Amino acid sequence: MEKHIKVVGILNIICHSVTILAALIILAIAVAFGWFIGFAMEVSQENIMEIPKIVASMIPLIFVSIGIVLLIFSAVGIIGAIGVLKRKEWGRITLLIVSFFDLLKFPLGTALGIYNIWVLLSDETIKLFTPITKKNQ
After folding, report:
1. pLDDT surpassing 70 at residue 50
2. CA distances, 62 to each of 1, 3, 50, 69, 128 (Å)
3. How many other C-beta atoms can be found within 10 angstroms of the C-beta atom of residue 59?
4. Quick check: 66 and 26 in contact, CB under 8 A?
5. How far is CA 112 from CA 36, 45, 72, in A?
6. pTM above 0.85, yes or no
7. Helix 53-85 vs helix 2-43: angle between axes, to the nearest 10 degrees?
8. pLDDT of the residue at 72
9. Which of 21, 90, 107, 127 has the smallest count of CB within 10 Å of its CB?
């Protein structure tokens, strides 16, 4: 089970690092789209754009919200993975919570989430992560 724990930690660091990169790209797209929409609305004397102004102004906000949520969950996933690699109980719990959200990211996130849950909830893993003070009691 030691190998599985190490694989879980490394895979989560890699997967969530890629997700952080994707989130930064989404944020860049939101900024560019917001700039483009603002510029197009200022330049346009006529109502050339068919998109209502309120909808056009909300699109970058939606992209920014998605990007920030992805950044937060990915950062928590990386922190949890580091905790798992250091055999910390809080890292195991954190990564379990993130793994349940990873199940929604079909197909790779689902596979990673299932593998994480299987490894982190096995009896052998739980024994490895139990603090020494609880083992002696």
Report:
1. no
2. 41, 40, 19, 11, 42
3. 14
4. yes
5. 37, 51, 18
6. no
7. 160
8. 96
9. 107
- pLDDT for res 58: 86
DSSP 46-69: S----S-HHHHHHHHHHHHHHHHH
Q: How far apart are CA 119 and CA 11, in angstroms?
A: 13
**pLDDT tens for each residue of 69-125:** 999 999 999 999 999 999 999 999 999 999 999 999 999 999 999 999 999 999 999
> In one letter, which amino acid is 15?
C
Burial of 128 (0-12, 13-18, 19+ CB in 10 A): middle
Q: 126 — alpha (psi -120 to 50), left (phi > 0) or beta?
A: alpha
Q: How far is CA 66 from the centre of its chain?
A: 10
> Residue 93 is encoded by which pair of tokens?
């719990």
**How many other C-beta atoms are found inside a 10 Å radius of the C-beta of residue 96?**
17
Kindly report the CA angle at 28 between 27 and 33, in degrees rounded to 5?
100
The CA distance from 91 to 77, in Å, is 9
Please enumerate in sequence order all residues whose Cβ is within 8 A of that of 1, keeping only pairs 6 or more positions apart, or say none.
Answer: 119, 122, 124, 125, 128
